[in-house]
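sorry to bug you again but im stuck and you know this stuff better than me. below you get a single protein, a line of residues and a line of whole numbers that encode the local backbone shape. mainly i need to know what kind of three dimensional shape the backbone takes. anything you notice is useful, everything is just below:

***
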Amino acid sequence: QVRLVESGGGLVQAGGSLRLSCAASGGTFSSYAMGWFRQAPGKEREFVAAIEWSGTRTHYADSVKGRFTISRDNARNTVYLQMNSLKPEDTAVYYCAAHRTFRVVTTLDYNYWGEGTQVTVSS
């Protein structure tokens, strides 16, 4: 069983930056693809970014491309989401997820999920 714990959320002004972290335990971290998703109030959970097991390949939602960067440190069992040029529409609960595959996964069918961290961007 893999446990995921997100951190780094908070309140930031538009144009600012935040770095989310997700610490994994209970599994072989390097064998999982990792992803970040978000869910705003009244909306469905949506894909934000994903990274394959080695960190070589990544994929982003069009809405965050060029502003967000996903990365991972397999030695630290941690995946990161660097968020720059934040906009009020980025406000959401951000979730980290792990998928039992080596490739990039952009759909919601991940095997393990964290409990989320709130990101609020004020205008």
